[in-house]
Design a protein that fits this description.
Order of helices and strands: HHHHEEHHHHHHHHH
Number of strands: 2
Oligomer: single chain
Strand order of the largest sheet: 1-2
Structural class: mainly alpha
Number of domains: 1
Strand content: under 5%
Helix content: 55-70%
């Protein structure tokens, strides 16, 4: 919206500042942050009133979590509201990538919202059919990937970029849609699995968003992409504004989600934010880098897969409890200790991911 003011920059020189992605990214961060700060308390009060007993807590989980009963969920609504408002205000709305990523985010948020709604109303820790939910996620991810392939440079459509190599592309053709589904739907569910402790998921998401905001900016800039010898994606720089909005909304949410949490993100937020990161990774041709930057989400997901496979094959559990953060809780780590140490891991992985930009 504000980007359109550049049409009058010849008459009013200072309006030219809205052309700069860096300026608009900063504006997106602050706008989303202030939006959640201002409207967050009212949203929390509304959700607490509507939900009554709050999010159901698993009886077989860590006993310390039982004290969290009554805490409202669906806090992702706060994030998505601030996120969407900020994007509509600061992004170039003629950019197709903006609408694709926003579409994935809100669609995944709607799926998560319905899942949270069923959990709250039916007082159960399981929502609607996992098969139906996954089918919807795959359909949305597939459509988004196809749209990205149509919007982007035909040279890169249907290709998978390999980090650490300058021009190494794996040409997958139409089968790239499957890769896009794995990245987008996989990241959405991986973040969802990680969201189990106060502040655990939102900070790694913001770290990943900051990393991909930089990647998007560099990929969309001809000079920087040429210098770093990464693939130039025309228009991808606009995704930095989306990453900025995600960071701002995430910071605002963390204010209320910091221990002891006043509200939980719920599937409404975790599924949506993971989907957003996955879609940005596909658009910028950094799918494998996302697996590095979001390595914490990968570890959490693998812990669940390993636990299930091991128990089905041998009747024994590898971890005391899955996902991984619960394993360390069961070992006696305090919740705050688990959360902060996992944040540190996320920072280290983000730095490794950024190193791939130069090691080519």
């Amino acid at each position: 919206m504000l980007y359109e003011l550049t049409n009058f920059s010849e008459l009013i020189g200072p309006l030219n500042v809205f052309r700069y992605i860096t300026f608009r990214t900063g504006g997106a961060i602050m706008t989303a942050l202030l939006f959640v700060f201002l409207f967050g308390p009212a949203i929390i009060d509304m959700l607490r009133l509507k939900q009554g007993k709050g999010q159901p807590i698993r009886d077989d989980g860590p006993q310390s979590h039982l004290a969290k009963r009554g805490t409202p969920t669906m806090g992702g609504l706060m994030i998505l509201a601030g996120f969407t408002f900020s994007i509509l205000l600061w992004a170039n709305l003629s950019n197709a990538y903006v609408w694709i990523v926003l579409g994935v985010t809100l669609s995944y948020g709607a799926i998560g919202f319905y899942d949270d709604y069923l959990k709250v109303t039916k007082r159960t820790t399981s929502g609607f059919s996992s098969k139906f939910r996954l089918t919807l996620e795959i359909l949305i991810a597939g459509l988004a990937t196809y749209a990205i392939m149509q919007v982007g440079d035909p040279e890169y459509a249907g290709t998978l970029a390999i980090p650490f190599f300058k021009n190494f592309l794996i040409h997958m053709g139409p089968f790239f849609v499957i890769m896009g589904i794995l990245v987008i739907a996989g990241t959405g569910n991986a973040v969802n699995l990680t969201d189990g402790l106060d502040g655990l998921a939102i900070v790694p998401v913001m770290i990943a968003a900051g990393t991909f905001g930089l990647i998007a900016y560099l990929s969309g800039n001809v000079k920087f992409s040429d210098y770093l010898q990464i693939h130039h994606i025309q228009g991808a720089g606009e995704l930095a504004i989306i990453c900025g909005a995600l960071i701002g909304a995430g910071l605002g949410f963390l204010w209320f989600n910091a221990p002891p949490a006043m509200i939980f993100m719920g599937d409404t937020g975790s599924l949506a934010l993971g989907g957003a990161l996955g879609a940005i990774a596909v658009a910028t041709k950094h799918e494998i880098v996302l697996a590095i930057v979001g390595g914490l989400f990968v570890l959490e997901t693998l812990s669940v897969i390993i636990q299930v496979v091991s128990f089905k094959l041998t009747g024994k559990r590898v971890f005391r409890m899955a996902p991984l953060h619960h394993h360390f809780e069961q070992k006696g780590w305090a919740e705050a200790t688990v959360v902060v140490r996992f944040w540190i891991i996320s920072v280290v992985l983000a730095l490794i991911g950024l190193a791939t930009l130069k090691l080519r």
